[in-house]
Amino acid sequence: MAAQSKLALSDGSLMALLSRASQTYLKHRTKISRAVYLTLFIALVNRIRNAIAEQKAAAVRHKQNAPVAGVTAGSSSTGAGRKKVELNREFFRNLFRLLKIVIPGVRSREMRLLISHSVFLVVRTLISLYVAELDGKLVSSLVRGKGKDFLWNIVWWMLVAIPATFTNSMLSYHQCELALQYRSRLTRYIHSKYLNQMTFYALGNLDDRIKNADQLITVDVSRFANSLAELYSNLAKPILDMMIYNYQLSRNVGGEGLFAMSLLVQLSANVMRALTPPFGKYVAEEARLEGEYRFSHSRLIENAEEIAFLRGQEAEKMTLDKGYFTLIKHVNYILRRRLYHGMMEDFVIKYFWGALGLILCSTPVFIKIPGTSAATLGDRTEGFVTNRRLLLSSSDAFGRVMFSYKEITELAGYTSRVASLLDVMDDIQRGHFEKNLVSSGDTDSHAAVLSGRGEIQEGSDIIFTDVPIVSPNGDVLVKALSFSVTPGAHLLIVGPNGCGKSSLFRILGGLWPVYGGKVVKPPPEEIFYIPQRPYISKGSLRQQIIYPDTKADMPRRGVSDEDLMRILQTVDIDSIVESGGGWDAEKEWRDVWSGGIQQRVGMARLFYHRPRYAILDECTSSQDLETEKTLYETAKSLDITLITVSHRRSLWKYHVNILQFDGQGGFVFTKLDAEKRLKLEERNSNCNCELFRIWRRRLPNWRLSSRKKGFLILQVLTSPPP
Fold first, then answer.
1. Structural domains of the chain ordered from first start
2. Model-wide pTM > 0.70
3. Would you tell me which of 85, 487, 495, 518 could form a disulfide with 499, CB atoms 3.0–4.6 Å apart?
4. What are phi and psi of 594, to 5 degrees?
5. pLDDT, tens digit, for every residue of 192-201?
């Protein structure tokens, strides 16, 4: 009982204690206010000093960890999308650099839009302040029972809606217009550099730092512009609201109470900031994964014809799915982090800060604030509603400032990627690269041909009967092509560029329709195509040999890694397994291997699949004669019927028939006698040389420049046999 009597306080004692405390506060209010403002000023100065010290320390760490300048060929690069994204000096340097581009001067259209946008922001804040006062008057008139005042306040409420809605619409318009202007300025600037001094070529062929320039220029520039325009609106108005609302609140409820509340809000905000995930880093990584996914699609489009010939859609689907689901996994991770962070923000901003606000707004009801008059119930109600409205608006403004921290980090991610593109283009234009070494003719007749369709049948042989050959632009190159290829009857195809060889392959591969005649060909899986530069897919070393198969398809074919090694030994590139890091190593093999190795990989791919027919389009142009002999004899030993496009005389002996186009719509299909053809070629060359010497003797005063002489001699020596 004694303990209870000590702890118990009567209502009178509590009220007396509060009364003495308030009287003491009011007596020394001036001194307390000065101490509060002095403390606030010292805290602000200390905060600025700590921020400067942190920036200097970060700069020192960056300088110590920075790589040596002057990267030579063969060095590695982390890539533009892998830079660490932080709100540091590097971010502000890049941001100011981009701001100079998007806002070129004080007289620019962008600056005029910014000024107009700022004016509407001020007008909106003033309207919100008037609406808060009007809200209090409405409630006060209700409490006092003054219907006439209430109706007049309703009228003013409706009248103020006109400038308010106009202002909100203009703010939205200015924000969208600013984003569009920023993007236009930056895009034009990038285009002027990208399409200057062959930068676009060097960016993709001589430098490895930017793998997806198209995604950076089209997507990241747009996101940067939108983020920058939104950030100004989302920062300028909340800061302005906080200044005006807090000033009015300090007059209504006292500056000390507002300061105490601000202190608690700042402490909770610091805790929230410490617990905020690095969203800028997440956004930059998401943009990088988006770029890689887009680049995979571009790669598919770029090599669509060869992939279609090889029936590699399943392998490419696996590559695309892998890139897509890696991106989705990262996006889901970001969403989960945003979920937990959003729950924390909602609790602190809406409820904890709301409770503090209720206490602050109720202060004039219980404590007399000098300079205020709230004697009656209506006055106290009006003051509470007005202060509550001001506080909610101020809290909302502060919350938007807090939310804008995530927007700033996202802007940092976009800024880093766009600035990296500009830095790389500047380096390239200075000569600094970083790369890892390792319709013509009768239109009516053409239209008639193109409107028709031929017949396609499946069989064991390849037979063309009166089939028109059409170029990509619709020209009919050969009106009626007829020839046949039976197993073991290897065919050599020769002719000038544009005569129809590629169109013939597209028909064989099923990529183009048959515009007439009849085509008999085996199923697509029995025809394999190897171009001059084989397609190197994205994946492991093993996938390059078995493409378009996957590792899971090897047991079905009864092939092991040992069998693949024997194939590589046959084409004399078995060393790439050890030097490349093993069968499962994944690299950009197109950059690691030379053109000659890539051609051998293409032949190894042929030996793995063992089709009935193989189309070889200059696929040994980078090989010596001995290697070429090994490759062709191995293919023939595997019962692969060869259809070769080449002008190399060394290949004549491996073929039985020849299909020769003259480039004028004619063709010859006949047996190929290699020895006889070589003798005719030699005889023709001798005759042409003798004819040239006769011309020189008969025309002694004939003057030619050295360049024209060489061209004439080359033309004579390379003329086809009669």
1. 67-429 (1.20.1560.10), 452-672 (3.40.50.300), 682-717 (no CATH)
2. no
3. 495
4. -75, 170
5. 888 887 677 6
